[in-house]
């Protein structure tokens, strides 16, 4: 299900192009404990996710409850491969009413970024307007975000020298908006079985064409 990772894919392209803006501070504590975001772990089966897991396609399951919920999130999404189990999990934040400059949403994003950085250390953050955007004024910040012409995200991985825990390859937090008046923050966790997991579901989709 590539649609679940559209923003993260675009973010990777931006970083390759050299458009990142800053790094966070290095965390010198080694990440030795297994990563369990929201109380979920790599390799979980659908059955282990619980009866409340609702399939939404491509191995994705919507979860309205998790073992360790976070008050900032409204629901969660996990991708589970039949062969390797859970490979990806995302928390989808509650709506944040914001002014046209995005002050409230940017504050929520910064708070979540700093909370994650306390565990994973160095990150790369980007706040940029796409070059061909018509939403270039200071008061167009939320409109540009809603139109996907502005990016605000932070990413932790080996390139940023983050102190990731075993089997975790990337942590990604971003601000999204559906309208110019409100937005939300998402946090995504990618495990080292995610590439094979994604390939498995892409292959299933390709097979349906023949």
Describe this structure in words.
The chain is built from five helices and ten strands; from the N terminus they run αβαβββββαβαβββα. The chain is of the alpha+beta class and 210 residues long. It has one domain (2-207). Strands 1, 2, 3, 4, 5, 6, 7, 8, 9 and 10 form a ten-stranded antiparallel β-sheet that branches.
Using brief descriptors, characterize the structure shown.
210 residues; alpha+beta; 10-stranded antiparallel sheet; 5 helices; 10 strands; 30% strand; disordered C terminus
On the 0 to 100 scale, the average pLDDT is 86
Fraction in beta strands: 25-35%
Largest sheet: 10 strands, antiparallel
Question: How would you spell out the order of helices and strands?
Answer: HEHEEEEEHEHEEEH
What low-confidence regions span 5 or more consecutive residues with pLDDT below 50?
Answer: 205-210
Task: Set down the secondary structure blueprint.
Layout (H helix, E strand, L loop, with lengths): L5 H11 L5 E2 L22 H4 L4 E4 L2 E4 L9 E9 L3 E9 L2 E2 L5 H18 L3 E6 L11 H6 L3 E7 L11 E10 L4 E10 L2 H14 L3
Antiparallel strand pairs: 1-7, 2-3, 3-4, 4-5, 5-10, 6-10, 7-8, 8-9, 9-10
Task: Give the structure's gist in a few sentences.
By secondary structure, this protein is α+β, with helices and mostly antiparallel strands.
